[in-house]
Design a protein that fits this description.
Helix content is about 30%, strand content about 25%. The longest helix has 17 residues. The strands form 5 sheets. Strands 1, 4, 5, 6, 8, 9, 10, 11 and 12 form a 9-stranded mixed beta sheet that branches. Strands 15-17-16-19-14-18 form a 6-stranded antiparallel beta sheet, sandwiched between helices. It has a two-stranded antiparallel sheet with strand order 2-3. The chain contains 13 helices and 21 strands. It has 2 domains: about 260 residues, no CATH class; about 120 residues, Conserved hypothetical protein from pyrococcus furiosus pfu- 392566-001, domain 2 (2-Layer Sandwich). Strand 4 and strand 5 form a beta hairpin. The chain is of the alpha+beta class.
């Protein structure tokens, strides 16, 4: 059963929250971050390379030093202020008329190391190292991890009661998504939430595998440095926002490939026909509507690819995934792409950007072919995590992303 605790969040005053709150560090490159960052933006803390001209190497020591200095300055200037007592918080996100309600809390590192915080993706060491350095130098979790948990009626009832009141924050970000935030400072409610989660069997990492692993590594470091370690110290816990499974939707995560591995478009289509029923759809965007159906854009036309029976294994939690089918039958067998995490011939595009972006990248000549996939379900994610399996890279894309800066957790 999972262990959580309230915490005294470091967060912006209500009147400047829109200026401080920012998109997560990993959905922007340095140039996009610089363009988006206003004076008070948290991006000066999460992407401090933008403060240098020209933009500096994000992994350089001077950039890490600037991150620490900016975090200090933001507190000194009153742009980030710590709450006077440990609280829980409710964070609601609104997208396309749908609202999801997450609890902002601190999760325990032991639940990660002991398998009660379940992952479905592998991490890359260089990204994990970078996030670990940020946690270590700031002595804080600046950005939260995105968790899901099995639906719980008692938690739902508490959230309904809390959100019936006026929110602390209520704004619509530049991307059109709404963000609302409530503070739970009533001691009885706090104790009740903590107790209820003792009966929640697991958290599932929806987004933030590298941040989760980095937080656990910093905790391990601090344990070895503290001969009086008890397991209750603040550094044992890290920042997360946890949502009920039923409220979350995974959207498609698509692929674009730079070349056809020496084949002409006609030869490529012929090779596909061995494992797929290939149907030309013309110039209008075609979106897959079911499992094992793919959309492909090639040479100015959209195609439907339906995997032939026997080319996939619906009894295997990994084999049933369309990312597996596409990887095995197209990317590997025909295009020669063996490792999705390292091959420079492939790139990945979140479905939030729309399928038109896939066509533009092919029409520009940058890419030769694009594939759109039917999205993974939350049930598939949970089944894979519960079975101890790992999804192929770039399988899930969650929207809306958590806005960074609404709550920061200090480790002391």
């Amino acid at each position: 059963m999972v262990r959580i605790k309230p915490f005294a969040a470091v967060r912006p005053p209500r009147e400047i929250v829109e200026e401080v709150a920012a998109r997560p560090y990993d959905v922007l490159n340095s140039f996009e971050a610089r363009e988006e960052a206003s004076e008070k933006s948290l991006l000066h803390i999460t992407r401090p390379e933008i403060d240098f001209d020209p933009i500096a190497d994000e992994h350089s020591s001077k950039v890490y030093d600037r991150a620490v200095e900016n975090f200090r300055l933001w507190q000194e200037k009153g742009w980030l202020v710590q709450d006077s007592k440990p609280c829980y918080y409710v964070y609601a996100q609104v997208m396309n008329g749908r609202t999801q309600y997450g609890l902002v809390l601190c999760a325990h590192a032991d639940d990660y190391s002991e398998g009660r915080i379940k992952k479905h993706e592998l991490t890359r060491k260089e990204k994990e190292d970078d996030r670990m350095i940020h946690v270590r130098i700031q002595n804080a979790n600046i950005e939260p991890v995105f968790f899901s948990y099995p639906d719980n009626a008692a938690i739902d009832a508490i959230v309904r009661d809390v959100t019936a009141g006026e929110p602390e924050y209520d704004f619509i970000a530049g991307d059109g998504f709404g963000h609302r935030f409530w503070v739970i400072d009533d001691d009885a409610t706090i104790e009740k939430i903590t107790a209820i989660f003792r009966d929640i069997p697991a958290f599932y990492v929806a987004d933030g595998h590298h941040r989760t692993a980095a937080a656990a590594r910093v905790c391990a470091e601090k344990r070895t440095e503290n001969p009086g370690h008890t397991g209750d110290e603040e550094y044992n816990f890290f920042l997360a926002v946890a949502f009920p499974e039923s409220q979350l939707t995974i959207i498609d995560y698509n692929r674009v490939v730079r070349d056809l591995n020496g084949l002409t478009p006609a030869e490529f289509l012929q090779a596909l026909s061995d494992d797929f029923i290939v149907s030309e759809k013309g110039p209008e965007i075609f979106k897959p509507s079911k499992l094992h159906q793919f959309s492909m854009y090639l040479a100015g036309k959209w195609y439907s690819l339906e995997a032939r029976p026997g080319r996939y294994d619906d009894s295997d939690p990994i084999g049933v995934l369309d990312v597996t089918v596409l990887s095995n039958l197209v990317l590997d067998r025909i295009l020669g792409i063996k490792d999705l995490r390292t091959d420079k011939r492939i790139d990945f595009v979140g479905g939030i950007r729309g399928l038109g972006v896939l066509a533009k990248r092919v029409d520009s000549g940058e890419m030769a072919v694009a594939f759109a996939l039917y999205p993974v379900s939350m049930k598939q994610l949970v089944d894979i995590a519960d079975s101890g399996h790992i999804m192929p890279p770039k399988t899930t894309w969650f929207e809306p992303k958590l806005r960074s800066g609404l709550a920061i957790h200090k480790l002391d």
